[in-house]
Amino acid sequence: MLDLKPDFGGFFKDETFVGDFTFANSPSAVRRFPFPFDRDQYMYSVNIEPHVPTRPGSVLEHAFDIDEHYVSEMRDRARVLARDPLRCQSLPHMELAGWDLVELIMESLSRDYPQWFTLERSGNDWHWVNKPLGIDQRFTFLDPSTLPYGPMEYITRQMQGDFTLQDERDGNLWVDAGMVTTQADWSLDFDIGMNFFEWHAPVPLAHEKGIFDRALKFLLKLQHGAPVRRFNWTMTVNPLLDTAPETYPEWGPSKTTLTQANLGAKQHLRVELQSLFRLPRSNAIAFSIRAYLGSFQDLVTVPKWGRRLHRVVRDLHPDLAAYKGFLRNRDAMVEWLSKYDDGAPTSPGIWPED
Amino acid sequence: MSFPPSIKSRPVYGVLSPRPGQAHLIIADGEGAGAVADLFASGPGIAERAHVLYTPGPNGTDDWAVIAGLGAAQAQRAASVPTLLFRLARVLLDAKAGTQCYLAGSEGLIGQAERDLMAQGVPHQDIQKEHRGSTVRRVQCVHCKGVTENVRTDPFQCSHCGLHLFVRDHYSRRLAAFQGVCIDAEEPGNIPPPVEKFA
Amino acid sequence: MSVAKLLVRVAEVEKINDLITRFRFVARDGGLLPAFSGGAHVVVEMEDHGTRRMNPYSLSGDPEDRTGYEITVRRDDAGRGGSIYMHRHVSPGMEMVISHPVNLFPLDGRAKKHLFLAGGIGITPFKAMIHQLSHIGAKWELHYATRNPALCAYGDQLKGPVHFYYDDLKSFIPLRDLLARQPLGTHVYCCGPKGMLSWVRATAAELGLPEHSVHFEEFTAPQPGAPFDVELTLTGKTIHVPSHQSLLEAMEANGVDAPYLCRGGACGQCECQVVKAEGQILHRDHWLTDEEKASNSKIMPCVSRFEGRSLAIER
């Protein structure tokens, strides 16, 4: 087993995403929060752009963002998996894609965060050190018997955010593997094996708009060495990363607990930084779905975000509010947010300082 | 019969039509026997290379006599779907790549046979499927993972964990089941009366 | 989306036989190249005395060998000159530019068994696939037909369940029996001349093999033809397409960028709407449907040409 011997050091926070919910963003984490709305309205679009490093200090500085919540998020993932191992599955033909993902992540992290991660390679003999999690692993690349888990599970137990691996066949993408414990209410166990359209079938409005046809066409030409990214978002009551359908009866009741007094602290905007990488050996596509939680009271400390969040939530198409699961609380959210919207114009783009 | 338009994960069915093949593997339940009879009528060469596996439908329809009268090279009647699937596993052990697969009858039988064929490497796009007869559903409870067979109402009570579930059109080929999700998760006890939707 | 490029140097040029030469590329910076998947190709850029050629070639080496890429090129004396350029002008030490590997002929990992049918130079993707399957221990079988033993490239290197056939010796792949005895779950892959592809397609269909388990490498090298002019309505240019250049290459030579992955009529990326066609579009791609071809509403500029009075396309 992967024994976590976490070293929080001076940077990583010791916090929980369940029960007493001690999760909180530091002031600098609030400033670098990936606020997803670049204008005052929201509707689906194929908002995909090249995933190139940009803005030092932001979540887009590196291929994969490691932040102050890293160690605690990995502890939360281990907790979820111990309870329900079906949250991580890989169909048998996806093992090679799992190795591709091991290579991609280990190369990226050791390049971008050498103070925390190191990778030494001699042919297929690899030596991986993950200091924050206390992991020191020697293994043989492409030999699963040398790792404590399958390759995808091994590396994604050490990565913030969910991952799915899509096999490309018959002009479609098939979600044939995944590690899914920080999801916006979808079940890997149910959806694994589906194609791109089936997997997204429950999403309202977007099929009719041709969003998925265009997105698939775009993704099929995704090339190795040229990853892309987009943002998606939803709403979550309490900083609960694991809003899974499996445990819906446990967290569903929290949606009825909001009051004007507690809403700013309890209601979180949940943003997914989604990045997609073509994998070299398997020709599969890795889909990284990195979730960030920001409480309303933290977000409105940036005046531009407070104004814009109010307008987006107020004017959102009701089908989308229902699909994202917050139709019940929308009026309360708008009431609370209205205090932070003086009607002043907002500047284009997502960054607080622009 | 045809189902109303739905989301993209909901299975759609066609009409069985004869295709060239070294062997014809035909799996049916209940009223699916009629679809098999129509297939044989439109493809005179099929019978001599056909292997039919049949079981009564979830509504009790047993048209074995129709199947038995078709003159298939091989035909067996199984007492239940699980029994049929054991017979299917044996057939697939030494089946050849040039085997045409045809499924007919209820969604539960079609889905489970498709799942087992896929597991042996038959691309699901190349399996012909025709729905006939009962529209009861096989539903997986997303919470306890238990599958309830022959669901007739929406919502219904999970036969394993007892939660009240609404029935989605979201369908998993791998599980051969529709998805059931707790209907009163946000307000426990607020359960609408069940409506008979599937017969 | 622009095509990601790799800067390479030619490390080896080896004549395999009278028609076929193997080229090995290494990274100019001395580093490792990305691993790739069996069946992938790279687009090789050639500066052929003022004409820029960009030809796709399957990678034929070991996908796990990141120290270099290998392609295997058959000289086509009747072609437009790309393969002739490779054979005559490319020598060790030369610096070249290639695309990142792209795979339009992938293995289906779910297969219980992979059956490869190669004709002539069609061996190249299978050589890489066999390497890859050997690393992961999957079941495969190769049937390889060439004109004669002298033209059987890599015949001495292919080990394992490999069967050779030679036209000149009247030995042919026993296709019907071979396909008929394959177990359920077998995936069939065919790469070779057009006639072989049609033969395999028809025989597999007749035996009832599932359509989605039979795969074809459908690249077409662009063929030369009569020169023609074309109006590009979005850019407002009218350009000339000489006989030994493709429409796509002519657009690029005139500074008009078009997306592409394969440059061989298979990937669909360069598809253009036809605004007006007074004459005959010579469709040579594997992308458009028969109806689309018949209606002359679309053209694939990487391989297709035009004969007639005037052609205008949206680009």
UniProtKB/TrEMBL annotation, chain A:
It holds the Pfam family HODM_asu-like. InterPro entries: HODM_asu-like (IPR021848). This is DUF3445 domain-containing protein. It comes from Stagnihabitans tardus.
From TrEMBL, chain B:
InterPro entries: DmmA-like_C (IPR048037), DmmA-like_N (IPR054582). Pfam families: DmmA-like_C, DmmA-like_N. The keyword Kinase does not apply. One of its GO terms (molecular function) is metal ion binding. Keywords: 2Fe-2S, Flavoprotein, Iron, Iron-sulfur, Metal-binding, Oxidoreductase. Residues 138-181 form the Dimethylamine monooxygenase subunit DmmA-like C-terminal domain. It comes from the Bacteria. Residues 6-127 form the Dimethylamine monooxygenase subunit DmmA-like N-terminal domain. The keyword Lipid metabolism does not apply. Signal peptide: none annotated. This is Uncharacterized protein.
UniProtKB/TrEMBL annotation, chain C:
Its cofactor is FMN. Residues 228-315 form the 2Fe-2S ferredoxin-type domain. Residues 3-108 form the FAD-binding FR-type domain. One of its GO terms (molecular function) is metal ion binding. Keywords: 2Fe-2S, Flavoprotein, FMN, Iron, Iron-sulfur, Metal-binding, Oxidoreductase. The keyword tRNA-binding does not apply. The keyword Isomerase does not apply. Signal peptide: none annotated. This is 2Fe-2S iron-sulfur cluster binding domain-containing protein. The lineage of its organism: Bacteria, Pseudomonadati, Pseudomonadota, Alphaproteobacteria, Rhodobacterales.
